[in-house]
Amino acid sequence: MSEAIVSTRIRLARNLKEYPFPIRLSADKAREVVDKVGEALKDCAIKFHRIDLSNIPDTIRVAMIERHLVSPDFISEQDGRAVYLSDDNTVSIMVNEEDHIRLQVIKDGFELKEAYALADQIDNILSKKLNFAFHERLGYLTQCPTNLGTGMRASVMLHLPALRMSGVVNRIGANLSKLGLTMRGLYGESSKPSGAFYQLSNQVTLGISEKAAIDNLQNITTQLIAQEMRSRENLLDDIEAQDKIHRALGILKSAMLMDHSEAMRLLSLVRLGVSEKKLESLSTDTIDRLIVEIQPASIMTRFGDDMSPRDRDIKRAEILRDRFN
Amino acid sequence: MLCQHCQKNEATTHVKTMVNGKYAEYRLCPECAHELGYDSMFTDFSTDFGGLLSSFFSNALPAISGATHCDTCGSTLNDIKRTGKVGCADCYDTFFSELMPTIRNVHGNTEHKGKHPGVIEYTVNEDEQKADNNASSKDKLGALRAELKEAIEKENFERAAQLRDEIKGLEG
Ligand SMILES: [Zn+2]
Ligand SMILES: [Zn+2]
Q1: Catalytic site positions of A
Q2: Which is the most buried residue in A318, B75, B76, B89, by most CB within 10 A?
Q3: Whole-number mean pLDDT of chain A?
Q4: Averaged over A157-169, what is the pLDDT?
Q5: To which H or E segment does residue A182 belong?
Q6: Residue A270 · residue A252 · CB < 8 Å
Q7: Residues of chain B positioned with their CB less than 8 A from the CB of A72
Q8: What residues pair up with A106 in beta bridges, in sequence order?
């Protein structure tokens, strides 16, 4: 479908019946849970490798967040926490985050049903070896009652520059909760999100089946994207908007210092230009890869843990000049 | 705890995020959370719901079950209110009547719809219990469930998914 849909994610929360939830779990027991999950995953056709959080440097932990493989909450503690990653990083299984198991599938583009099917398969394999905490009335039991029921969070990452420029995005955000959805900004480094990237997900997990929640998200996403496309048409007739896009590219091609939020703002504009065919010879894939590359911890992972913010701004500008010239 | 931004109001939002490539946590009051962009629109994915939950709890009915703590994990109702987190699976039974108003508030619903784990066990019991029932759709359900069990054992997930849809259709 549209390039305005960057990626799709399905996350399932599961807990083992015979262990207390992570908040009440000793470090020894937590390690037992990590081992059990690893054992159960051996039956899966997909091969996973295990990463214990306590064994890796802080920058790698943060770089995993920047790639959406783990959550910020997950790295807030390291003892007894591990993540199982598939080779292609499509599947990540966080163990002992807020729940014993957070199984996540990420796919590029708009692939809700495909992503769910994969998550569901892996969940079935896990449930053969692991005894999941489940309640006839409340569904899958989770540490936080907000995830009871299916324990499923389905989300799409959207690029909505036109709706953001027209200010409509805030109004939409406020109305989405009536439709059982929430929308959040992404890639904010210090406080406000930069670039026009949003994550739209289902809000409620109890009393609505996986299928109904996914269908709802799919419908609303389709409508939202149609709205974004209509706004783009009007917007891009405007010479000022075109000017903004071309100037953004100009700055990315020549700047010597580039902080994170400026980079995100400019990349967002260029991404708009590329997907509306105003900028030839570039692809949205290139931009999407760059967005990950220029995140602070990703830069530090590649170029050194001890970089100051200024070092990073220099390196970031360099990466961008290289790519756009 | 006071808001870390204005140092004036009570902090209600716990934000976990990244600043300049490092993990960071903030506790903010609603106004500052809004001002800094951490309101419902812009919060990070893992902003925790504890604050929200414990405000629901404070409006909830007083203890009904009379249980002082969960025998399995030792959590008291107060622990759950304070953290917004439940201690173990058994807590949900122990504090069922106390938790229910919050759960209803959060989800607008209290009956699970959707997937059951270990469909295998579930269907077997179901079949035994319902063996005496005579409706023909029940027979068909039984057969479909048996086939589903086999499909899952053989890891033929595509077939299993089809079967599950058929079963859901029959269950209405
Ligand atoms: Zn404040
Ligand atoms: Zn308990």
Answers
A1: 11, 98, 102, 144, 146, 153, 184, 189
A2: B89
A3: 91
A4: 89
A5: strand A181-185
A6: yes
A7: 16-18, 23, 44-46
A8: A9
